[in-house]
Amino acid sequence: MRIKSINSCSENDLWDYIPRDYLVFKGQLFIDFIRINMQAVDEPFLFQTENKLIELNAERKLIAFQNLQLKKLLKPAGLIFHSARCGSTLLCNMLQSTEKCLVIRESGLINKIFADTLIDEDCRKWLYQLVVHFYCLYALKEKKACIIKFTSHSSLNISWFHKPYAKVPWVYLLRKPEDVIHSLTSKPAGWCSNKVLKKSFRLKHEILPYNKLKQIELLLTHQYQMIIDYFQQFKGLIAEYEKLVLSDLEAFNQITRWFNVKPNDDNKRILQCLSFNAKTGEKMCLYPIDVNNQKDNSENQKERALCYEYYQKVCCL
Hints:
The chain is α/β, with parallel strands linked by helices. The protein folds into two domains: 1-70, no CATH class; 72-315, P-loop containing nucleotide triphosphate hydrolases (Rossmann fold, 3-Layer(aba) Sandwich). The chain is built from 13 helices and eleven strands. It has helices at 46-55, 88-97, 108-115, 121-141, 158-162, 177-186, 194-201, 212-233, 241-244, 250-258, 268-273, 288-291, 299-315, and strands spanning 3-6, 9-10, 17-25, 28-35, 60-64, 68-69, 78-82, 101-105, 145-149, 170-174, 237-240. The strands form three sheets. The chain has a five-stranded parallel β-sheet. The protein has a four-stranded mixed β-sheet with strand order 1-5-4-3. Strands 2-6 form a two-stranded parallel ribbon. Helix 3 (108-115) runs antiparallel to helix 4 (121-141), helix 6 crosses helix 8 and helix 8 runs parallel beside helix 13 (299-315). It starts with a strand and ends with a helix. The relative contact order is 0.14. It comes from Aliikangiella maris. This is Sulfotransferase family protein. InterPro entries: P-loop_NTPase.
């Protein structure tokens, strides 16, 4: 492990580094940067890329927060919020296949900053924007637009994550609630536990019953309502998984226009993400997220579908 402690550092010294972690020592805030060094940032989660870099013994720099010499903070080209198990990884793959985007996928560091109660609110907000700035700086070096994809449960606190970037276009990707519920009950996500939700996302006890199915349903309802309320204040783009996976790419092109990113004229790589044959237009195989789709067969799941219909009307899909 190669970690250098740096007294003073400018942006030019960190073009090919991204922030990986931070720590407080003797009242001082330090940021741990890790060198990307041409490593592709295309794993489903950013921490997987970071772990790979650590295994490759990538150089790291530990820099005191106050010693960073920064110019104007950069802002991302777009933000992606989403419900769980809705094809957000697919959307990231499609965006990166255009070779015009660098997608930061579910940064654990951003989640840590949001959940940290040991530093004050102003410091958390500044640290969050600083981390995003360095993601954008690396994307700029690669001559790509920086898109930040948040974890699904970040939507429960969308105002905190979006407020510093009120003028940055944002997308919310959703999928039919009955399919999300089936996926989460078949293979629960780690963040669905009461402990994680309470600690990381400040949720009240009354919306966290011990029945797993009911818990997921209430979380989805709460998430959808948060997005509906927020959409009425800060208009974003609502995208549907069911439309995203169609070979006409209409929904995907709408997203790229919203982010002001012009894809390549050749759609071959994008269609390959969808498992379509670029020449014939035929489906080569089912995309994995399609396999577990199940019909709505319970009253609770029907309620989710009604919520979804309301969601469509309010957001003018």
